[in-house]
Amino acid sequence: MTIQLLPRSCLLSFFLFISQLASASTESLQAPQRVIENASLALLTKLEDPNFASNKSESRAFIDQTVFPSVDMVRMSALVLGKHWRSASKDEKMRFITAFKNLLVNTYTSTFTTQFQNWTIEYLPLDIKTSDKKTLVKTKVQQPGKPDAKIDYSMLLRNGKWKIFDIKIEGISLVISNRDSFGQMVKELGSLDAVISKLEAKNAL
User: E-assigned strands of 15-160?
Assistant: First the structure.
C-alpha cells in the first residue's frame, strides 16, 4: 500500500505560503498569521544560499527545526489515525508521531527544493477574538500563468502558541487524505504496529 499524501503541487503550496508571507504587509497580520511569517523570514534567508537546495540533509534539518515547530504534530497525528489513535499504545503513538513527521519533512523538503516558484499570497480577512483557541487562516496563492489556489490553515492555540493541525488546498484536507490512506494500510497489514514499521522503513531510504 502506497502512502498517499496530498498532490505534490499541494505540498509545494504549504511551503510557498510560508516563504511568501514575508513579502506581504505585516501591519494587519493577526497572531496566527505571524507564526507562519516568522518561519518565512528564516526560510527566505536560506533560499539566498544557492547550495541550500542541493544539500538534502541540511535542507531537511532546516525545515524540521524551523518550519515544523509551527505544526501541532500530536493533534495532526491523532486526527490522521482517528479510531486507531484511541486504541494505540503510548509507544505506538510516539513512534507514529515521529515517523509521520519524518515522512512530511522528507516529502515537503523534496518537493520544495525542486519545485519552488515565485508565488504571492493574499490574506482573506481573519476575525479572531482574544478568547478564541481555534481559527482558520484563509489564503489565496497566486502564481503567474496558473489559477489561484485557495489554501486554508486550521490552527490551534496550545500553551500560548498558535500551531497548524490541518491544511486544506482547494478543499482537500491533509488530515482526511492521510486518514483514508493509513486506515487502508491498517486493514491490509493487520495492525498499526505494522504500518508504523513500514513507515519507519520508508523514511530510512
Answer: 120-123, 134-143, 146-158
Residue 97 in grid coordinates: 508521531
Amino acid at 18: I
- By the 10 Å C-beta count (0-12 exposed, 13-18 middle, 19+ buried), 114 is classed as exposed
| Residue ranges of domains in the chain | 8-204
Rounded-to-integer distance, Cα 205 and Cα 200, Å: 9
**CATH number belonging to the domain at 8-204, selected among 3.40.50.2000, 3.40.190.10, 3.40.50.1000, 3.10.450.710:** 3.10.450.710
Cα angle at 96 between 91 and 101, to 5 degrees? 135
Q: What is the pTM of this model?
A: 0.82
Q: Strand 120-123 relative to strand 134-143: parallel, antiparallel, unpaired? A: antiparallel
**Residues 107-147: pLDDT tens digits?**
877 766 665 555 566 778 888 998 999 999 888 877 677 78
Cα separation of 176 and 155, whole Å? 16
- β-strand pairing of 172-173 with 134-143: unpaired
